[in-house]
Design a protein that fits this description.
Layout lengths: L14 H15 L12 H17 L5 H29 L3 H6 L16 E5 L6 E5 L7 E9 L9 E6 L3 E4 L7 E10 L2 E2 L6 E4 L2
Helix pairs in contact: 1-2, 2-3
Length: 204
């Protein structure tokens, strides 16, 4: 199992959310019983967060100079909390409880990637989609069906079927902005399989 770590997800937060997040983390990191000998004094951490928050408030009027100053203070705060994540990971050594006590979030254990049976991507033109099927062992052909779902959730009859010996279908002439459902079955020497679970997509 992969060792748990504090993560840098806060870097993607909005400036207002960052201020709140950083303020909370500063409070949590002040617990000397859990985080002794912190590498950056709590007073320094609070001062950086204070300066960042003041710059965010000053930039609300949209002035270019104020926004530039806010961006500078955001970078200073981001760099500091990156450093603090490194410190927390060193102290925690994979202990999720300690990481959570710091105010940072814990990395998720990796989930094995499972390729979906059917994927529907945007086509090269409006009203078009590209449907890619997961190859089925022993299949000699594939049957693809699709249907329109209106704004009330009412289902049209299944269209098609399109039958191909490859797993790639280009479909044109669909209604842009409309929702469609897609499903497929495979054909082998044993006959035609049951249809897959449906997948839906709004066509652009």
């Amino acid at each position: 199992m992969k060792k748990s770590k504090a993560v840098l997800d806060f870097i993607a937060y909005s400036v207002n959310d960052k201020v709140e997040f950083y303020r909370n983390a500063a409070i949590q990191l002040a617990d000397v019983s859990t985080f002794p000998m912190i590498e950056v004094p709590i007073t320094t951490i609070n001062a950086v967060v204070d300066a960042f928050e003041a710059a965010v408030l000053a930039a609300k009027d949209g002035a270019h100079t104020a926004i530039a100053l806010r961006n500078d203070q955001e970078q200073i705060a981001d760099d500091l909390f990156r450093l603090l994540v490194t410190y927390v990971n060193k102290v925690a050594n994979g202990d999720e409880t300690i990481i959570l006590k710091s105010g940072f979030h814990v990395s998720q254990q990796p989930i094995p990637f499972v390729k979906p049976d059917i994927a529907v991507n945007d086509g090269s033109r409006s009203g078009g989609v590209v449907v890619i099927l997961k190859a089925v062992l022993g299949a000699v052909a594939y049957v693809l069906q699709y249907r329109h779902v209106n704004s009330l959730g009412e289902l049209a009859e299944w269209g098609g079927p399109d039958v191909k010996t490859i797993t790639h279908f280009d479909i044109d002439g669909l209604i842009p902005g409309a929702k469609y459902e897609f499903r497929f079955a495979s054909i082998s020497s044993a006959g035609t399989s049951d249809f897959s679970a449906t997948i839906s997509k709004i066509v652009i």
